[in-house]
Design brief:
Number of helices: 3
Structural class: mainly alpha
Strand order of the largest sheet: 1-2
Largest sheet: 2 strands, antiparallel
Number of strands: 4
Helix content: 40-55%
C-alpha cells in the first residue's frame, strides 16, 4: 500500500460508520494484524488516517476493498437506496399533486375569463343583419 492512495470519499465514510463498526475492516499486509475501524491510527501531522497502529502504513486500499466486499455495507447501502427511493416517490407524489392543482386553477381561471368575456359580449348592442354598419 502506498501513501499516494486517495483518502476515502465522504460516501465511503458514510457507509463505513453504520455498517462496519463491529468487525475488522482492514488487514495489514506488513504485520498481518486485522483492525476494526476504531483501532486504526491516524497521523494528523501528515494528514493521514486509516493507518496500521503497529506498522504505521496506510490501510486505505484495504478499507476500500473491504467496503466493496462487506455484506453489511451492501445491506446499509440497500437501506439507503430504499430510503432515497421512498423520498423520491413522496416528492414525485407532491409534485404531481401540485401540478394537478395548478392545472385545476388554470382551468378554473380560463372558465371564469370565458364567462366574463361572454357577459361582456352579451351587454354589447346587437346589430341586426339589415342595419348598416356605423362609420
Amino acid at each position: 500500500m502506498s501513501l499516494s492512495s486517495p483518502p476515502l470519499i465522504p460516501a465511503e465514510r458514510e457507509l463505513l460508520f453504520p455498517a462496519c463498526w463491529n468487525h475488522p475492516i482492514a488487514t495489514c499486509s506488513q504485520c498481518g494484524s486485522s483492525f476494526k475501524r476504531d483501532e486504526l491510527a491516524a497521523d494528523p501531522f501528515r494528514g493521514l488516517s486509516l493507518l496500521c497502529p503497529m506498522c504505521g502504513i496506510a490501510l486505505t486500499d484495504a478499507v476500500r476493498q473491504h467496503l466493496m466486499s462487506c455484506r453489511m455495507v451492501a445491506h446499509v447501502d440497500t437501506e439507503n437506496l430504499v430510503a432515497q427511493t421512498r423520498a423520491l416517490l413522496e416528492t414525485n407524489a407532491m409534485v404531481r399533486k401540485d401540478a394537478q392543482q395548478q392545472r385545476d386553477t388554470a382551468q378554473r381561471l380560463r372558465a371564469e375569463a370565458e364567462a366574463e368575456r361572454q357577459k361582456r359580449d352579451d351587454k354589447l348592442p346587437r346589430r341586426s343583419s339589415g342595419e348598416p354598419e356605423a362609420k
